[in-house]
Amino acid sequence: MGSGAKPRLSSLPPLAFPPTRAQPSAMTNDRIALALQGGGSHGAFTWGVVDRLLEDGQRIDHICGVSSGAMIATMVTQGLVRGGAAAARADMRRLWQRVASAHSMSPLQAAPLERWLFGGWDLSNSMLWQGMEVAMRMFSPAQMNPFGHNPMRTLLEDLIQPHLLTDPRAPRLTVAATDVATGQAVFFENADITVDVLCASACLPFVFPAVEIDGRAYWDGGYAGNPPLGPLLRPDLPAELILVHAQAAHRPGIPATPSDITNRLNEIACQNVLNAELAALPASVKLRRYEADDALMHLPISSKVSGEEAFLKELFEAGRRLAGAR
Predict the structure, then answer these.
(1) In angstroms, rounded to a whole number, what is the distance separating the alpha carbons of residues 247 and 293?
(2) DSSP string for residues in 12-80
(3) If pLDDT is split at 50, 70 and 90, which confidence band does 142 have?
(4) Looking at residue 130, what is its pLDDT?
(5) What contacts 24+ positions apart, CB below 8 Å, involve 202-210?
(6) Is residue 316 over pLDDT 70?
(7) Which of 179, 188, 212, 318 makes a 20 to 30 Å CA pair with 52?
(8) Residue 323 has pLDDT above 70, yes or no
(9) How far is the C-alpha of 111 from the C-alpha of 107, rounded, in Å?
């Protein structure tokens, strides 16, 4: 699946900040940086936040994202060039309409009776979901998916417009993926963004085979930082960093099923990496956070693969409400 894309920044540890950070004022300018977490379908919450920010006239100079956050970031970047905030909002909507349309053909969705009996958007009572859980514990992605089919490829392939991503007017765009061999984040920028890069950034290793780019294998970018903040601080510190969450930092109760336990462990690991980066953030950089706990912490892991239109709209509206309240 080689794409020919070459990462501009590679194998940088999450906390590799500029060595002059002790005197940040000399490096600070008026740039606005936007960091977008990944979270599967929960990224519709991020969509809502960013949609409202753009509607309110928010300027964006540099965006870094992983997984669904990387896809949103790509749509925003090319949309801003094509027609400003209105086009960026339209491109994001087009992406999520594709997600909903693809899901409408999927058997992995709760039946009306299941939704009435169990409430919400929990797919864990679906026989298909339960079968997938068993299969993921027993078989590798290569065994379950020997041809390496990735539905995200079909969804994305005609949405990306490279000539807009490389336009001089485009915000700087950074997409993160995790190098399987080194375990470190690898960063791809505007000219390097392809369908392969976005699929790599969203590659869940229990579901899809690793995405190979130029002889290197990549998994979901969230494993090395969700999202990594380092690229947004180079070469100069931004005046403000806007961080949009797409996963819950806190969850009530104790997870019981293997998939819920694994999901919570991943959330904790990602959150600890992010907390370490935030603790090292230079004091001169203003931080604005849009946290997702109220909208997401009650949702089970199975909802991350739900692309039902009503569910996505619910998360979208929750994100818009939060951004509008700030």
Answers:
(1) 7
(2) --TT---TTTTSGGGT--S-EEEEE---GGGHHHHHHHHHHHHHTT---SEEEE-THHHHHHHHHHHHH
(3) low
(4) 52
(5) 202/38, 202/66, 202/67, 202/68, 202/70, 202/71, 202/152, 203/150, 203/177, 205/141, 206/136, 206/141, 207/136, 207/141, 207/145, 208/141, 208/145, 208/148, 208/150, 209/141, 209/142, 209/145, 209/148, 210/180
(6) yes
(7) 188
(8) yes
(9) 10
